[in-house]
Design brief:
By secondary structure, the protein is of the alpha+beta class. The protein folds into 2 domains: about 80 residues, Arc Repressor Mutant, subunit A, CATH 1.10.10; about 80 residues, no CATH class. It is about 45% helix and about 15% strand. The protein is built from 8 helices and 4 strands. The strands form 2 sheets. It has a two-stranded antiparallel ribbon with strand order 1-2. A two-stranded antiparallel sheet has the order 3-4. Helix 3 crosses helix 4. The longest helix has 15 residues.
Length: about 170
C-alpha cells in the first residue's frame, strides 16, 4: 500500500501517519519547538541533506503544519514556525521524549537528556506530561526545556560540525 492510499484511508491513525509518520517530520517539529527556526539551524541539528530538509519543509507547509516567514530581503531566506495545527503535535513530541527516556536507553547514569519545566510555576513536568497542580496538556510554549550537559554538548558539536572550523580573518 502506498502513502497515497494510506492518506485516503478513513483511519485517523493512517491519515495522521501519512502526514507526520516520517521520522524527519517529527524531528523538524521538535527543532522548531526548541527555537531552531532557520534552515541551517534545523539542518545542523537533524543532519538532513539540504534537499531532504527542503522537501520536508515544503511538505509540512503544504500540509499546514508550518508557515515560513522571510527574514532577509536581500536573499530568499526564511524562518519556519509551527501553525496552530503544528503546535498540536507538542504533546505527542513530549510523550515520545518521555517514552524514549524510559525505554530507549537515552539517559546513561539516570540523567535525563532534557528536563521539562513549566514556565509559569517552575514545576518539573512528570513523565506523564503533567504537573501536580494541573492536568492541562502542555505545548512547548508553556515549558522550558533544559538540556543536560551531554545533550547540549552534542547539539553544540552538531552545530560546529555543520558550520566547520572557523576561518581566521573572518
Amino acid at each position: 500500500m502506498s502513502w497515497k492510499d494510506v492518506s485516503n484511508s478513513v483511519s485517523p491513525i493512517a491519515k495522521s501517519l501519512a502526514i507526520f509518520g516520517d521520522r524527519w517530520t517529527l524531528l523538524i517539529m521538535f527543532e522548531l519547538a526548541m527555537g531552531m527556526h532557520r534552515f541551517n539551524e534545523i539542518q545542523a541539528q537533524t543532519g538532513m541533506s539540504s534537499y531532504l530538509l527542503s522537501s520536508r519543509l515544503k511538505r509540512l507547509e503544504k500540509d499546514g503544519l508550518i508557515k515560513k516567514c522571510p527574514y532577509s530581503e536581500r536573499a530568499s531566506r526564511f524562518n519556519y514556525h509551527p501553525t496552530p495545527k503544528g503546535k498540536e503535535l507538542d504533546p505527542l513530541l513530549m510523550m515520545l521524549g518521555f517514552w524514549g527516556m524510559k525505554w530507549c536507553g537515552c539517559c546513561p547514569n539516570d540523567e535525563t537528556a532534557t528536563k521539562l519545566v513549566y514556565k509559569l510555576t517552575g514545576e518539573t513536568i512528570s513523565e506523564f506530561g503533567l504537573i501536580a497542580s494541573s492536568e492541562k496538556a502542555f505545548t512547548f510554549d508553556d515549558i522550558e526545556c533544559i538540556f543536560n550537559k551531554a545533550f547540549q554538548a552534542e547539539r553544540n558539536a552538531k552545530w560546529q560540525a555543520f558550520h566547520g572550523p572557523k576561518k581566521t580573518g573572518d
